[in-house]
Amino acid sequence: MQELRERILREGKVIGNDILKVDSFINYQVDPVLMSHIGKEFAEYFKDKGITKIITIESSGIAPALMTASEMNLPLVIMKKQPARELNEKNFITQVTSFTSRKQYDLCLSADVISEDDHVLIIDDFLADGEALTGAIRLVRMAHATVAGIGILIEKTYLPGHEKVYSHGFDVYSLVKIKEMDELQITFIDQ
Amino acid sequence: MQELRERILREGKVIGNDILKVDSFINYQVDPVLMSHIGKEFAEYFKDKGITKIITIESSGIAPALMTASEMNLPLVIMKKQPARELNEKNFITQVTSFTSRKQYDLCLSADVISEDDHVLIIDDFLADGEALTGAIRLVRMAHATVAGIGILIEKTYLPGHEKVYSHGFDVYSLVKIKEMDELQITFIDQ
Fold first, then answer.
1. What does the pLDDT look like over A63-106, one tens digit per residue?
2. Gap between the Cα atoms of B13 and B23, Å rounded
3. In whole angstroms, what is the distance from residue B170 CA to residue B53 CA?
């Protein structure tokens, strides 16, 4: 997606070789026009896949996932990060380690908002080591629902998440793929 | 807002006298059509107030705030909840106690995405004891920006947040106001 790539080149900040900060248009500040275009792009790509629900992980995935849900006229389900002491027996829970902070947290999907008939499209902002995304996939499977597609804004193809997710045959659509990056240059894979 | 009131009556669950669970259309699951109508409603009410940015608190405020930002064609800024060890000197931080869990957390506004010229509209899902909202107001003031309006989906007028916020003369628009509730009945204030 040319628009997202240009925005990353103009406003993104690379820290070391792994962290790409996109605080001005995705994380701390969100550009609703860009999010609307992203929603249309995912809706177009996944329109014939029989999707029944959009699922995302709080909180940076919510904006693009909501715009996709709005475009496809489907409900949005949010998986929550929460400490173990708030566990509820009706929820599906799995443990995930954050790529950015290295902290462990419990990712939670409410059993009330998913059924085994659902074909879900998982939307998230980044695919890096794949911890959050594989956690989300585990939760969808615990609910006996089907992962019908995965939409990612920015994929770093040189980190382990790429292999983890593609090797399982999922239908992944990443709007922008980064092959390598450092503080001087970001190299994209042409799509 | 009649649509939101009807939805609360149909799908909301009251626990005790204080907690209203709206998991099926606002929190765990989000209805994008309802959120779009909420965005239009806030945009119409605040259209002549000189708003420059929409601000919300992660994560349940993000969906209605994004739709408002989209409708008003303004950037959305997200205040993040994070533990103290991730503090960054360039961020504004204040401490808040969660109404639902009673846990304390640090609420954080990135200094990079707000300026003293900003007139912000703060959007959040609930106004209960006002802890999160008054924390958000403190952060906007630390940045020397102006709180030009406050948009709330569901206000519980019998809890302390109402008095805290209205007594300071803010322009508050609550889509639905609840005067009292228990597990048998929810009484709204007619608007």
1. 999 999 999 999 999 999 875 445 556 899 999 988 777 788 89
2. 9
3. 16
Q: Which of A62, A79, A139 to mutate to test the interface with B (most CBs of B within 10 A)?
A: A62
Contacts of A58 in chain B (CB under 8 A): 58-59
Integer Cα distance of A129 and A133 in angstroms: 9
Is residue B131 within 8 A of residue B165, CB to CB? The reply is no
- Under 8 Å between Cβ of A84 and A108: no
Reading the block at residue A83, the tokens are 């400490």
Model-wide pTM > 0.90: yes
Interchain pair A70, B32: CB under 8 A: yes
Chain centroid offset of residue A131 CA = 11
User: CB–CB of A113 and B69 under 8 A?
Assistant: no
Beta bridge partners of A172: A150
Q: Is B163 on the interface with A (CB under 8 A)?
A: no
Rounded (10°) angle between helices A32-45 and B62-72: 110
